[in-house]
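Chapter review: from sequence to fold.
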Amino acid sequence: MRLRLLAALLSILALAAPPAFAADMLRLALQATGTTVWEMAAISSLHLDKEAGLDLKITELASTEAGKIALQGGSADIIVSDWLWVARERAGGARLTFYPASAGIGAVMSKDAAIRSVRDLAGKKLGVAGGALDKSWLLLKVYALKQGVDLEKSATIVYGAPPLLAEKAAQGEIDAVLEFWNFALDLEARGFRRAIEMTEVEKALGAKRDPIVTGYVFSEDFANAHRDALERFFAMMKKARALVASNDEAWRAASTRLGAKDKATLDLYRKRYIEGAPEGTLIEQEADASKLFAVLAEIGGEKLVGPAKSLDAGVFYKARESH
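The token string follows.
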């Protein structure tokens, strides 16, 4: 009888207890070497995903291009890419939108102490990562032209993949190289100087602060259907970034994704990561992007930005915090 009474009581308590809600699932396709996977390591270690009520399904890919394919093919909800790609896709009719994540950008790296400005690149061999339509290269060209330097005429330009150009620079085959931020950082750890900071180039072309470079990209339809989950995701990612920057436990978890690097190199990675934190409000970030878009549209034309002449108002996702 006592057992029956106990069983009945437990049944009543179970019915009275609040229902357990399933966490919202988000499918992310991320470049395996990107900083977002560092943050995901910290998020997993500190259980920030559970705290946010999110179930993150993460697929790691070899390149950002693979992520774009995953998003467009419907096998991922969110990827990390740049706002310029989103602008170009929107100009072609795609309903994609972007939320800022990082202002981290590369630099012109060199071991030649005489190279300190675009004028010093005249007569030199300059490597350019990302190809002829890479936005950093286009911005550097415009910046140089404003100082009376035509880099395509005065320097020997070598295009190539970031790791290949980094090795050519290390071997002394090229005098300087415009690299993506992580490859620039690896060269810095190997004794190279940041001869020309791309953040300074961007500011010289109209940006008021270090402009946003990459962010979370997703479709408008997905955002409309999962607005609350997205808001929690953004808040979680901001918390993760702050912890990776300031909390040693979070940094230890994140740094496991960097492989076997010495402490000095890891410290440099953390320093540059902290410097890449987004600045300003979403409205200010969008304003800087609009100014740079106008510069890029002028020099890169339709091949780079598509038919749009100005940054579409829907490129930057309007989260609740921006209102």
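Two observations follow directly from the output. Residues 133 and 304 are 6 Å apart (CA to CA). Residues 25-103+211-322 form a domain with the D-Maltodextrin-Binding Protein; domain 2 fold (CATH 3.40.190.10).
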